[in-house]
Amino acid sequence: MSRKILRINMSDQSAVYEDIPEKWSKWAGRGLTSAIVLDEVEPTCHPLGPNNKLVIAPGWVSGTPAAPSSGRTSFGGKSPLTGTIKESNSGGLSSKKIAKLGLAAIILEGEPQNGEWYQLVITKDGVEFKDAPDLAGKGMYEVDEILWDQYPNKPAVIGIGPVGEKKLSNAGISVNDPEGKPGRYAGRGGLGAVMGARGVKAIVVDDEGGPGVDIADEDLLKQGRTKLRDAIMEHDLTKPDGGLNTYGTNVLMNIINEAGGLPTRNFSAGQFEGAADISGERVAEMVEKRGGEGMTGHGCHPGCIIQCSNIYPDEEGEAVVSVVEYETAWALGANCGIDDLDYVAEMTYQCNDLGLDTIEAGNTIAIAMEGGQIEFGDKEAALALFDEIREMSPLGRIYGQGVEATAKAFGVHRVPTVKGQSMPAYEPRAIKGIGVTYATSPMGADHTAGYTIAPEIAGVGGKVDPLDEEGKSDLSLTFQAATAFVDSTGYCLFIAFPILDISSGWEGMAESVAGVTGLDITGDDVIDVGKEILRMEREFNKKAGFTAQDDRLPEFMRYEKLPPHNEVWSMSDEELDQVYAWTNGK
Amino acid sequence: MSRKILRINMSDQSAVYEDIPEKWSKWAGRGLTSAIVLDEVEPTCHPLGPNNKLVIAPGWVSGTPAAPSSGRTSFGGKSPLTGTIKESNSGGLSSKKIAKLGLAAIILEGEPQNGEWYQLVITKDGVEFKDAPDLAGKGMYEVDEILWDQYPNKPAVIGIGPVGEKKLSNAGISVNDPEGKPGRYAGRGGLGAVMGARGVKAIVVDDEGGPGVDIADEDLLKQGRTKLRDAIMEHDLTKPDGGLNTYGTNVLMNIINEAGGLPTRNFSAGQFEGAADISGERVAEMVEKRGGEGMTGHGCHPGCIIQCSNIYPDEEGEAVVSVVEYETAWALGANCGIDDLDYVAEMTYQCNDLGLDTIEAGNTIAIAMEGGQIEFGDKEAALALFDEIREMSPLGRIYGQGVEATAKAFGVHRVPTVKGQSMPAYEPRAIKGIGVTYATSPMGADHTAGYTIAPEIAGVGGKVDPLDEEGKSDLSLTFQAATAFVDSTGYCLFIAFPILDISSGWEGMAESVAGVTGLDITGDDVIDVGKEILRMEREFNKKAGFTAQDDRLPEFMRYEKLPPHNEVWSMSDEELDQVYAWTNGK
Predict the structure, then answer these.
(1) Is B136 left (phi over 0), alpha (psi -120 to 50) or beta?
(2) What is the pLDDT of residues B120-133, one digit of tens each?
């Protein structure tokens, strides 16, 4: 039984199961969403028009037994935020369930003629199209609760908040977590608006009785996943009670601050005096002190053995939100000059509920501050800004679109974006390699697209000087290619830490993919396969009109020195263009 | 005495007079602004950042005696609306006065460190930098009045309204008319925001005692301008009591409606049932009926012999606004489903006062209507929208940015823009040649960049079928090149009507330029010189990252049929790419 493509057309509410065509058969996850988008979406189409599509795909190993930390689902389409091809992936419950239904991908296309909102229910028996007037306008916490009440089987729920309904460019796609709550987001690039433009508020996925995933070579899969698991369990960053398990991703706050690379107050400094107050250590301290529902070492999907998530408690020990990530605490904290974790947590809740990417949302607040709408550090005003979005006031419509729209509305020209997407929590003037990734990734500014922070800061996969330009083009490309591969596996990107240092883990990852798919892939092929994916993505972008001039960091970083290193962005255009020079022959 | 470049740096409030360098010495008007912008503005700079510049240049014949209808001033820079190079030109008082001061161009660069607003006063004695706290925040009617009170010599006033101060992308640059009122606008492309980013609210230009314009060959100039004048006085469209003089540009309303090419209700139909009610004939009728200050056959600058402007009166005969143009009446009328000239006139006044381009403003209202904010045809609500802009409410900040920003805020995907600039009053699905101009002009969608309407509708310069694709690529290029030349002369583009039909007029235009400059230019060189300008502009855009994919009409026009002809946009990408194929070798 081959994997199926489930094609759902919202224009006539039809659903068709197609055998996966030969041209896509090797792909899963990001590789598959990008292949489908390249083949089926006209690159110059309007991202919110009837001809864009939302593609949802689990990874190669998703849904196979005991593959560690393999719960990622890829979402792809043309991005309303960037105009590029986009893949954004999320943890949560959806990946395994979609895979176990025998689906390689769900393609959501067309638009309802009546302007109604739909709820789709996908089971082994097919797709049910339900009117969802009761869900429309609701936040994701309520939506997830309603749907788990309706479907006691604890299905995956993929949904959009009010921001996605209004088709604003900072709309993410929520996937519910093991507790049935939102917070796992395919956040970046506004794909929630693409789902909204299809008229779909939520997709319920129940894999009960599904056929499961075909496995080509059980032994090879077992061998691979064991190697990978061992590496994860051994590495300092990912082992139980290791850095990520203890402090979450927010273990980085003090480290990046120390390195002078923590973007502060809309990228005007590289260190924040309040960093410690919003760090992972402080989160752990609050969890310890307040107790109750608070926890660290929380898992975002079943089968995760890293468990870097947390549940942030309020003073009474009741859960405020899961998860306060590093990127989130930085975006809503340091970058806004805010040093209060309780406010960061509350704003994170608002993002999860409204359906906003936290990175873009935090950057947006910082732009509102730079534009004189709010004072830097004014946490009350920052929090109140989410009320505007909830009310969909005109101001809320500005903020709901993210950084570039907000900058234009307030005449701000210090705009930390690449290809329309705002930068995450690493200052490229202080950490050059990640700047190369921001500049050249087909996704716009995105740390997860090629996380050179590993060798530049964490000493993982080697150790290089973050301030040095030398070799950073090659470094970024290698990381971008490896990432494209990992994003296709279904594994969480955090497996990269152990497998960069422990070669048997790297082999194990490849072997597990070969075991499931029967593809002739070894550890030696990972980079080349990743480059195939990048090539497809760059091809889409080229056809959409993107050029080398789009592979640049914002102008102000070229002339404004960043304290404390007092560095400008100094990589030459030639060095940036070198990253994808290998695609130019084709 | 050679022409000077006046370089004004707002960072240190310095002004330097430079001899015009050899590389620019042949250019004036648009040719000069584009040459300077290409040489001095980094194409990937932020349009509102410190490294963009505003260049102001009169034409070759500006300021010479008796050159007919030669009062155009070119404004150039990198556009905040489109991201392309931009030249936008205006009538009014400035052109001759700048030329008579011996200036080839004024380059406005830098940005004040203190965030203050300045008023610049340019006379034969130099530049005075005056703090202008009293002008900041004021509308252009008041600003123009204040400055004529301060300077009784009736100087030219170049200024920006509140929209330019806030650096919003639909900010135009106002030039006062012979009555000392705003209404002559370098409207398109948001150059008012570029002026605002320089901290300059207004520039007063007094040419009293200026050296005047050097003339290389008085006889040749005289010969040329006489031929040109004769052609203007002879042609049906431009002669006294001809079409333009009698009904203004708005003579087109009924004609374009009849042709099925009048974009109606955000480009959803090609005919408007209320066209006659907002036509030039109706304007003339109102002027006739109401009397008082109302007039047709009004001139926008001294020395104009076409006089296509008007002054629209209210019921008591008092002037509401000058001028209700065809584009304006269409944008604020037909495209919004509004058929009431009094409202159109009042909204035009608001645009002139606030500093908005009327075409972009009308399209913006139509998008707000499409997005469900206002009903199509609701003239009260449309007018009230300007209050939002005046108050700079969040909604006003959205609308003040123009069409694309408004569409994004309200999730609209039927967006009639090219390169970020909205289309003027001719439907490309019904009139193919103008669509080629919209798609391929370096300026974004702009009818004045290559007005193929002349042969397609008016039977000027030949007669071709508007619905036919054949030959439209070449036609558009020829018109774009001729326009680039005319935009450099200082002559109004409307001389094109007579000189397309009367070859001695075409020769006369070229001879007058040769007479002033001493350049070896004849009528045979016009297209080639125009193409040199286009080549510079395309080069800037290429360096800014624009590609063939940007030379496309919006997606919805490719799949949505336009009544009454029920045509889609049908020109192929290859036909569009053919227009500028000649630039690819270089």
Answers:
(1) beta
(2) 999 999 999 999 99
Per-residue pLDDT at A303: 86
Superfamily of domain A4-205: Aldehyde ferredoxin oxidoreductase, N-terminal domain (3.60.9.10)
**pTM of the predicted structure, to 2 decimals:** 0.97
What percent of chain A is predicted at pLDDT more than 70?
Answer: 99
Work out the burial of residue A8: count CB atoms within 10 Å of its CB; fewer than 13 is exposed, 13-18 middle, 19 or more buried: buried
**With contacts defined as CB-CB under 8 Å, which chain B residues touch A193?**
411
Q: What is the CATH number of domain B250-426?
A: 1.10.569.10
> Tokens 């050296």 map to which residue?
B211
Residue A2, pLDDT score? 85
Chain A hits for B117, CB-CB cut-off 8 Å, are none
Q: What is the pLDDT of residue B303?
A: 86
Which pair of structure tokens corresponds to residue A524?
């030696």
User: What residues contact B50, with CB distance under 8 A and at least 6 apart?
Assistant: B11, B110, B111, B197
Distance CA A224, CA A220 (A): 6
Domain residue spans of chain A: 4-205, 246-426, 428-501+522-586
CA distance A466 to B41: 31
pLDDT at B586: 47
Partner-chain contact A411 B49, CB within 8 Å? no
Of A200, A53, A206, A54, which is closest to residue A135 (Cα–Cα)?
A: A200
Query: What is the pLDDT, as a whole number, of residue A586?
Result: 46
A549/B contact by beta carbon, under 8 A? yes
pLDDT of residue B28: 98
User: For residue B276, what pLDDT is reported?
Assistant: 98
Residues 48-87 of A with CB under 8 A from B: 48-49, 51, 80
Q: B428-501+522-586, what's its fold?
A: 1.10.599
What would you measure as the largest C-alpha separation in chain A, in angstroms?
A: 61
For the CA atoms of chain B, what is the radius of gyration? 22
For B545, the closest of A45, A412, A547 (CB atoms) is A547
Ramachandran angles phi, psi of B429, nearest 5°: -70, -25
> What is the assigned CATH class of domain A246-426?
mainly alpha
Q: Which residues from chain A sit within 8 angstroms of residue B197, using beta carbons? A: 411, 413
B394/A398 Cβ within 8 A: yes
Of A48, A394, A405, nearest to B395 by CB-CB distance is A394
The whole-number average pLDDT for the span A271-277 is 98
CA–CA separation, A271 and A329 (whole Å):
14
Q: What is the pLDDT of residues A527-557, one digit of tens each?
A: 999 999 999 999 999 999 999 999 999 999 9
* pLDDT attached to residue A1: 59
The predicted pLDDT at position A585 comes to 64
Buried b (16+ CB within 10 A) or exposed e, B416-455: bbbbbbbbbbbbbbbbbbbbbbbbbbbbbbbbbbbbbbbb
Task: Enumerate residue ranges in chain B where pLDDT < 70.
Answer: 1, 585-586
Q: State CA B387 to chain mean position distance.
A: 25
